[in-house]
Design brief:
Layout lengths: L1 E5 L2 E3 L5 E8 L8 E6 L5 E7 L6 E3 L7 E6 L4 E6 L8 E7 L10 E2 L3 E5 L2
Parallel strand pairs: 2-11
Antiparallel strand pairs: 1-3, 3-8, 4-5, 4-9, 5-6, 7-8, 9-10, 9-11
Length: 119
Amino acid sequence: VQLQASGGGLVPPGGSLELSCAASGLAFKSYWMSWVRRRAGQDFEWIARVNPSGGLINYEDSVKGRFTAEKVHATNTLWLNMSDLKSEDTAVYYCAKGTQDSPWEPDAWGQGTQVTVSS
């Protein structure tokens, strides 16, 4: 299994950014996929959890209404569209593969992509 995350960068407060995670070596439609971030000095935060079909997405409260995740089976890609970005969104963002039944305890991770929100 390989997960390749990309799309991070520097963006001003209020700006937008889109992350992608290209998955290979797995039956993508069979697994929960998540976006997880880690802010400096803090624990991992599961910010978006997408069920295998892509029809159920759970968001962490701080990103609700600003972030949109999408699981595209045709291209084996997990997306995260982020808008109205705030300084507290600065973090390394990872995509993670869960099991068929749960997003927790991922068994594969992307390499992480840095998002920095600053003027």
